[in-house]
Amino acid sequence: PLPTSILPEWPAGANGTVRAGMKDHSKGKRVTRKSLSAWLVWGVGLAVVGGVVLGLPASVLHAEGNPSPAVTAEAWKSMVDDAGVAQIVASQVKAIDKSMKSAGTFRRALKKVEITGRILAIAGNVETFRAEGDGAKKGAALREAGLALTKAATDKKFEEAEKALATVKAFPSSIEPAADGKPTDWKSLMDMDGLMTGVASADNELKAIVTGKPEDFKKNAKDAASWGMLMAYFGRVTREHEADEDWKKWCDDMSTHSLALAKALTDKDLNAAKASRDELMKSCEACHEAYRVDE
Fold first, then answer.
1. What is the band of 31 on the pLDDT scale with cuts at 50, 70, 90?
2. How far is CA 161 from the centre of its chain?
3. CA–CA separation, 76 vs 146, rounded Å?
4. What would the mean pLDDT of 155-178 be, rounded to a whole number?
5. What would the mean pLDDT of 166-170 be, rounded to a whole number?
6. Which of 35, 129, 203, 205 could form a disulfide with 76 if both were Cys (CB 3.0 to 4.6 A apart)?
7. Beta-carbon neighbour count of residue 259 at 10 Å?
8. What DSSP state is assigned to residue 176?
9. Cis peptide bond prior to 177, omega within 30° of 0
10. Spatial distance between the Cα atoms of 51 and 199, rounded to a whole number of angstroms
11. What is the pLDDT of residues 45-54, one digit of tens each?
């Protein structure tokens, strides 16, 4: 289960259920629509930005080993541009900067570094959809560097983590392209617990900027937009974890609000940012009523 200290703010009466639901799910109980799945709703409601199924050629969609056709190149391209991708990667590097200062700080932040590595792997996999040629190969290289960072954290090897992070920092201009730029399966990059941890971190950042001092908002909003875009990434990947059409409906329903929040932050529009986050909370609460963990 996730530490309760990183859970985002919820509508009145929801926090206790969220925590209980997450604990129940971590024991392996199946998520259904019959009981209240707080943590699942939590992930779908906040992070999930839907994937619009816009087609790839049948030969690509049905090729052995390719990811689900629910996430396509055109869907990714419509969500984020090159500058946005670079901003997301930079924000993740910044998030673990202090943790990578020494072997000591690294050992005290192993879980954070592990999750950040997986987030970077997701960002790289996105590029294998968005980009072509060397661009896709550079995305694959970023994905592998992210996974190497995760492995280094899991194995508690600081020097290996430093090497992986150096490769990440070289993206996109000077990273060595991988041998090929093929996408990999989303579920192999991050499981649901990892996604929920990432969602919590992203929402904490978004909550802080939207509910903080107006002068801080004006100063930091544009940079914070990367966390809104990251929410969209989580949404696309979370969408791939369940086949239920209602699940996908919630993903699609949340996409407008998530992208609107990122845009409001980019535009430094505090009122619009607050309104967008409020809509995210309302959608989360509605989804909360639809999904729960069986007792």
1. very low
2. 21
3. 19
4. 97
5. 98
6. 129
7. 21
8. P
9. no
10. 17
11. 443 333 333 3
237 burial (CB, 10 Å; 0-12 / 13-18 / 19+) is buried
Spatial contact of 141 and 181, defined as CB atoms under 8 Å apart: no
Reduced to 3 states (helix: H, G, I; strand: E, B; else coil), residue 32 is strand
Tens digit of each residue's pLDDT (9 = 90 or more) over 236-291: 787 777 788 887 777 777 777 888 899 999 999 999 999 998 887 777 777 667 76
Neighbouring residues of 76: CB distance < 8 A, sequence distance ≥ 6: 126, 129, 130, 236
Contact assessment for residue 116 and residue 95, using Cβ atoms and an 8 Å cutoff: yes
Beta strands in the chain (DSSP E): 31-32, 292-293
Residue 30 has what DSSP assignment?
Answer: P
Q: Which residues lie below 8 Å from residue 179, measured CB to CB, with a gap of 6+? A: 137
- Encoded amino acid at 167, one letter: T
Q: Which two tokens stand for residue 287?
A: 């989804």
Select the highest-mean-pLDDT range: 4-8, 40-44, 188-192, 214-218.
214-218
